[in-house]
Design goal:
5-stranded mixed beta sheet; 305 residues; D-Maltodextrin-Binding Protein, domain 2; 14 strands
Amino acid sequence: MDRLQAMTTFISVVDTGGFASAARKLAVSPSVVSRVVTELEDHLGVRLLTRTTRVVRLTEAGSAYFEDCRRILSEIEDAELSAAGTHGSPRGQLVVTAPSLFGRMHVMPVMTDYLTRYPDVDAHCWFVDRVVNLVEEGIDVAVRIGPLASSSLQAVRVGAVRRVFVASPAYLEQRGAPEQPDDLNSHITISTSGSSAPTEWRFVVDGQSVVSSAHPRLNTTTNDSAIAAAESGFGIARVLSYQVADAVREGRLRIVLSPFEQPAVPIHVIHREGRNAARKVRAFLDLAIETLRSNPALSDPAALE
């Protein structure tokens, strides 16, 4: 058994999510992929993958082995590039994920700058409002907003954002600005139901966390549509500060109830490979961390007002 070939095949199955898709990527038949993975499992004496008719998932042993394979193959690639005199040039495919609006506003400019600098890299961006499993879905780098769960992933903090309550000047002139969280009961409120945002509106009153009893008149699945409704003068929306930084600076929206906001939440760039990250990943991390940390809307959210 060619161990490097077996590792490459195994990684392809995990990255692509199945044997048939891995076979297409490797230009071999699905039976070859299945045989190689089975021989690898027999050689190791452990089950690496749990197979069902619809999905292939890593076992606990498979997850650890997957990370080791990625590291080993990355080191081999770096060694070969170094021997060929091209060690300084990132190459390959990079997969990055981020929340949809944050991805459009802040990650995409980093990505286009990165791809311009490194023409031998291709990229795939997953801008989705859900927590993506980096190992199971083959992601190299992710941006996460909010507290991180304990894990073996490497995390670098690049900023923080506030959950703010905003309305247009026209709405506030007509209805008045709420001065206490309970005042929202007499206002029109706009809520988002995306998976990245809590469904409850929480405030801090006298040092205690309280939940608003206001019932949203408008519920939408995307933050940008909630912001558009607020800018139109329809009501008060709760969003993240980075999402409305330009609108607030330009006077299209105003922040209300800021004394009752919960503490700011962190933004992290996370990845799997630590110091052994592939050069393409390290180059993207360096650029992303520098760019995001230099953005005032992320580095100093309190300066928004």
